[in-house]
Design brief:
heterodimer; A: 273 residues; mainly alpha; MetI-like fold; 13 helices; B: 285 residues; 2 domains
Chain lengths: 273, 285
Amino acid sequence: MILLTQVPFVMSIYYSLTDWKVVPPSPRKFVGLDNYSELLSDHFFRQAIWTSVQLTVFPVLAALALGTAFAVLLDRKFFGRGIVRTMLITPFLLTPVVIGLIWKNQMFHGLYGVINWLIEKVGGTPIEFVSQHPTWSIGITLVWQWTPFMMLIILAGLQSMPQDVVEAAKVDGSTPFGIFRQLTLGHLRPYMELGILLGTIYLIQVYDQIAVMTGGGPGSTNVPYFVFQRSIGGGWEFGQASSYSIVVVIASIIIATIALRVLSQLLKGEASA
Amino acid sequence: MSGDVGTPTVGERRWVNGALGGFAWLTALVFFFPVIWMVINSFKNESEANTAPTLNFTPTLDRYREVTESAGGLLSFGEAFTNSIVIVLVSTLIVLALAIPAAYALAVKPVHKWRDILFFFISTKFLPVVASILPIWILARNFELLNTRLVLIILYTAINLPLAVWMLRSFFAEIPRELIEAAEIDGASLRGQLSSIILPMAAPGIAATALLCVIFAWNEFFYAVQLNPVDGSTVPIWVTTNVSTRGDFLAKLSAASVLACIPVVLAGWIAQKRMIRGLAMGAIK
């Protein structure tokens, strides 16, 4: 465990302080913090950071909101609930590579994509989603993939709600919306936090969809994909690429921490108001 | 009297419930549509799939036949599935074998500073896979593990272990302490406690954990494509081989995608109730 997760990290820190090109092989040279100072002035790296932020924050929050809505819809008895839940869970079970390819080729496609077919039916002009709006295209597929995950977590939260409190509130004459806002949201807070934490951890590392949908480029190269391009994806600058990844690790930890803090503050304010 | 007041409310509620149920159905169908469309496309001819969306076609199984036939020199369907099944099953079994005792130690018999240990486990997930690929690639090359099943088994075990420990700990923590103490007084050994109380009671949680490990391992693409591009390639790589830059491929790609997704989707559908219950048991306590 330690061997597999920590040793690579320590090796990465060391590599990040060196100038090391693997193909063509060249001796590893210790250069101190040079890689990091270069990093700050690298325009493409800053672009990749911005893409990463967009591709993490938007999908996590959208998937959480949508997942909560689905979970609330499912948390009542109606005809065929099991089938509806089964359909809603499915995107999370699909292989990310398949998700990327299917959305690109049969939903977003300019000539035979279903979305453009719909747009033409209502009189609009077709949009080349993936090439013109790469960030949105990838973002939407990520929301589609992660909404079921959020839904499962929130559903678990809803089903563990103590029913006697809800009954008491009903007897006291609370409206369903009031119950949801004052009781349910407070109860769901830790579940939402878990969803945001896990979602952020996984979404900040997205690679598969980018690789199969756009293969990188402005607006779709996030930091992980950027590191890949600069190292084993053709750049072979291992020293430099290591310094990027160290920055990613630190950023991931900061983002996850902030996300958690912000959310718990928000909901605390809501509960006391 | 109360009946007179109650009846209209019940009637109204039934109407609202029905409407919300219908709305849930509608949402689900829209949300599920890309999957339906993929399945429909997989039964088309290429010329029918690569045109404006249509439902006017004669279903055929030819695309499935084409993608499962082995073509010389290319990664074959059988090869990729065998690799994936072996890698996913072995790594998930190792994860459970390691995570159950670790989670037990953290939940039932908290060792010193267990919170720090728990955070350490989850913190290892913060290192993006792309960041770790450089040293892992170098290590794998030095140990001559590139293009072997073993390298992916090791890596998938490492990927899933933190989440498994984290989830299992919360399931174990739900087990009433009195039961374990009673077994201790009765003189049950550690192994006896595990097999007679803890494992049966946490079974739904263990199933949910194992399922998540299987999903993540089966669907993993990045390590597989970087470390095993030649031999030991897994199903996601096989799917991408069905994309071509020339000619139409959408129907074939759909058929390959359906085949690649079926095992995990079926497992997920069957286990969905357990997964929700597993998470409800307190994945966050």
